[in-house]
Amino acid sequence: MDRSGKAAIIEAIKVCADRASFAVITDFKGMTVEELTNLRVALRKAGGEYHVVKNTLARIALTDGTHDVIKDKFHENCGVAFGFDDPVAVAKALNDFAKQSKIFQLRCASLDGKALSVEQVDALAKLPSREQLLGQLLGTMNAVPTNFVSLFANLLRGLLYALKGIEEQKSKAA
Questions:
Q1: Which of 7, 29, 77, 109 could hold 24 in an S-S bridge, CB 3.0 to 4.6 Å?
Q2: How much is the pTM?
């Protein structure tokens, strides 16, 4: 590969890395092309991408970028997964694929420039998805006014029952 080809690859990886909030270095040694294709499809659905790049080119591309903390972890056969939208969804997709495949392994990750271990990526994968968190937040926000209205309705209902009782007492007395 000539210098211009290498420069193009470095630039493409640098653009992906700068756009991504989440990057994970993985070990794919021994995997088939079909398995890698399935991984790429799963990551694409989760809002990510998977790249297999020469280690030196990946180190150069990640230098002085958001994911600079993991650049020295590129050695042997490895690939890098980038997550653009929801890091939890990408972590879940990678974690699920690692459980299915006996060969595929996660090495380390970077979330907004902070280095993460494999255990931390696993913990991130166990978090609720963005949609679930938004649903929980909206449910909580909706509960406050609903409870407020119920509280006042109960107060008014009690007052109405008291007034109705007084009315019935006066009608019996009259």
A1: 109
A2: 0.72
